Amino acid sequence: MAYSGTPVLLEDLLFKPQNSLVIQSKHSRLGATTVNGDGFGVGWYAEGARPGVYRSTEPAWNDSNLRELSAMARSRRVFAHIRASTGTAVQQSNCHPFRQGDWLWMHNGAIADFSVIKRDLALAVDPALYADIAGSTDSEMLFFLALTLGLHDDPTGAVARAVGLVEEVAGRHGIADPVQMTVATTDGETTWAFRYATAGSARSLFHSTDVATLRAQYPDNPQLHDLSDDARLIVSEPLGDLQGAWREVPESSYVVVRGASEELGSFVPTAP
Amino acid sequence: MAYSGTPVLLEDLLFKPQNSLVIQSKHSRLGATTVNGDGFGVGWYAEGARPGVYRSTEPAWNDSNLRELSAMARSRRVFAHIRASTGTAVQQSNCHPFRQGDWLWMHNGAIADFSVIKRDLALAVDPALYADIAGSTDSEMLFFLALTLGLHDDPTGAVARAVGLVEEVAGRHGIADPVQMTVATTDGETTWAFRYATAGSARSLFHSTDVATLRAQYPDNPQLHDLSDDARLIVSEPLGDLQGAWREVPESSYVVVRGASEELGSFVPTAP
Amino acid sequence: MAYSGTPVLLEDLLFKPQNSLVIQSKHSRLGATTVNGDGFGVGWYAEGARPGVYRSTEPAWNDSNLRELSAMARSRRVFAHIRASTGTAVQQSNCHPFRQGDWLWMHNGAIADFSVIKRDLALAVDPALYADIAGSTDSEMLFFLALTLGLHDDPTGAVARAVGLVEEVAGRHGIADPVQMTVATTDGETTWAFRYATAGSARSLFHSTDVATLRAQYPDNPQLHDLSDDARLIVSEPLGDLQGAWREVPESSYVVVRGASEELGSFVPTAP
Amino acid sequence: MAYSGTPVLLEDLLFKPQNSLVIQSKHSRLGATTVNGDGFGVGWYAEGARPGVYRSTEPAWNDSNLRELSAMARSRRVFAHIRASTGTAVQQSNCHPFRQGDWLWMHNGAIADFSVIKRDLALAVDPALYADIAGSTDSEMLFFLALTLGLHDDPTGAVARAVGLVEEVAGRHGIADPVQMTVATTDGETTWAFRYATAGSARSLFHSTDVATLRAQYPDNPQLHDLSDDARLIVSEPLGDLQGAWREVPESSYVVVRGASEELGSFVPTAP
């Protein structure tokens, strides 16, 4: 879940919605797995340009510190993620969002047969960044590939090149359909979200239509009624059932949210 | 899950069966909740009369130390429990099984409005035992009431008196249908298991029929084929689908397993 | 450590001082134990009257989430505590500060032979509060006794009565020198800190003299240079070596900090 | 600490000695740091050729599961390690001992400026092993380099080549005195222990002299009196003060323990 707009308490995003992320952690409707109990993380911008990141290996529904933090922290830009491991260890350094400088990155999905091509991908990472890889996941590797290939200057291009690289390396190893992903990344000002799978049929991704609809979505949440008109949410699953509140991001496309504007584009991996 | 019989590796009980306890922790079929991810515990007898207890607040499916321990520890008597909290904190001291001396105790279910009657129940605990209450759950309180009311000498009577006491105290506070439980307890030689709810409709409880059936249940598990004829399992959910392998313990009854013998009795709470 | 004054980032209090609390967690100079690695906690006031509480069983020096939170959370009133267990379990519910409504409470020290008198003390707690006792420590029990005996209306009197009660109960059980304590408590507006031991020789307690001295204490910390004149710190150990910055709270006394004013009084337990 | 000999309960090794590893975790006498509270691990051989590994990020002195496990697990060969992080994350995958197949490996010390040369070292790891690197430490990297360079067939040679490689790579990056280490490794039958620092002055390492002396060391521990004559211990710090019980392993040397025999050799890194 990626939020931008008027500063809100994290709990208004994480706990109060009808189908909140914390509820999804136990009973996801659309996710690849019902239970996303292998840790979670929250990144939020408040003091300075660098976001804070709170990550835990506990299931989100059990973490009392998350509840406390969420009741106290107010932010204009929040990334939150619940994890269902696809095999790598449940440890903080494998929890999303990942941070590098002022950037955050999170990923749903998987790189097929990651262990087979992990070394080749690691070699493609900028040597100056290599030692900053803190965990062992495919998701973080994809982040470092995107950083290597120009994320700071050309986010949509860099992600296209990173995915293209993974597909090329996988192809050399005879791995079919290597990439399955929704990705969200931000520099603190703009959010880019991607939906793509080599074989089509990517994981779900939605963005909120506009604030008026959001207000209707949460009639009993006065805080959301104070939202500015540029408030936007990008989510894997709608946080509620209201008709018209959510628009699906099509497969093989991306959405860029900057202030109140949304820009949709088509996503095509760039082979190296 | 309560096992007794030939010493087996814990992993043969916890990980290998088709619908193992670890699998149930994520996808229970019969439990009150689908996800039992609020910690777990294993008690096992090996060295001396006192059982070891390994308890963790992590979901069982994520605990790599449980996997390691289970591959190395062999025991003739194993209690294992996965927890779905009914409100009390997720902390080791609230994980089952509870131990006092050589005894183990575990409980599925809940005491209704426990916070309302907790103090009255605590006052009924033997003062010499009061300070040994380590956690905050209704399950542990029930254990201490049973210990107070004669568990060591007359287990079925003590549990009947403990439940009767809870029902009496709850009645004074106007709480309807206070007790919902399956309980298993052992002194290291005998296992007693109870199924009862004040309002009927108690949680499920099964026991294995006999070793021949168990062997048929796990045709591919050579270790279980070495089981002695007195091997027995008591479970909340059958560990597999084989017809005839499991016999339901009726409501308001208990089963006593001593060696190869099972004795079924009817369970009636004793009012104080 | 109890801070009040201009809102500051938690990291300015917890990490930046020369002998910060996080450093003390590994190498305390004045504490009863050198290592205070059995968990820690932070309570802070920001949104609304109710403080947030972040508590962890990890050593403070290792908790990356504490570091993140401290870099993002700004507060006008902060309680922080590092724990060296005197025997009770290392679990979140035993970490200080404890919270009840808008109040926070933390304690260094111990009640001698607590397990012997725990039940008698628990019986003296207001029955309406009993079920809110979440952990198993003497420190939390002392808090609940103070709440029972009038903390909200008369903090110094209530603590005197709570300590008097403990001493009386301990006396009946033949326990010598039962109370060893420094205690700090706040309602969000005022801080009360106590230093007392039945046998004299209580743990150390200091308060900062005034802001001018604090500014001199941290010449390189520009944030503290922006402190208002009413900023005050109460600590178990001075956070730095500067002459004149810290004044010891005498044994058997208390200090009340309200805005820029400090009021010192002598503390005498009130027998029940 | 590396033990081999008659099967003993882990608690006889970890908890009972006067200056046990668990006590050292809080108050090391000879270690580079007094507090080794950044996790710990135990590896032990019992069922089959593959050792079990229990690793935790909690301080050893607090881990109740370690205490339980240690009272129940009996082993003829035990590796145990307490960690003081030199910068890498406190997570299970960074805790020693590391395991690969039937082998265990643990390391005290550090590779200087590891982040600078980490990528070059990773590239030297056998590509078939690369994806098995689970954590982020210099210690695990050294293990994988040794595995790559022939650990299974020629342990002392492989470690010499691994250290030589590190020194060569470090030299190319202008890093002085790159290696500081004591290392212990075992295949389940033999233990190899190394003491070396590029600049001399390596961390301490001792081995027990013989069982008769050990028996004298623990006059009150009847279990150790049942030890076979081939029982041996290799430790960073003597577990007790008895004169003559411990012999220091000289700098730049290794000791091989196979049954009751010890063989000492001099250790010289082999440049690639």
Automatic annotation (TrEMBL), chains A, B, C, D:
Family annotation (Pfam families): GATase_4 (PF13230)
Domain of life: Bacteria
Residues spanning the signal sequence: none
CDD domains noted in UniProt: YafJ (cd01908)
Keywords: Glutamine amidotransferase, Transferase
Domain Glutamine amidotransferase type-2: 1-238
Keyword Transferase found: yes
InterPro entries linked to this entry: EgtC-like, Gamma-glu_amide_hydrolase, GATase_2_dom, Ntn_hydrolases_N
Molecular function via GO: transferase activity
Protein's UniProt keywords contain Transferase: yes
Protein name: Class II glutamine amidotransferase
Source organism of the structure: Nocardioides agri
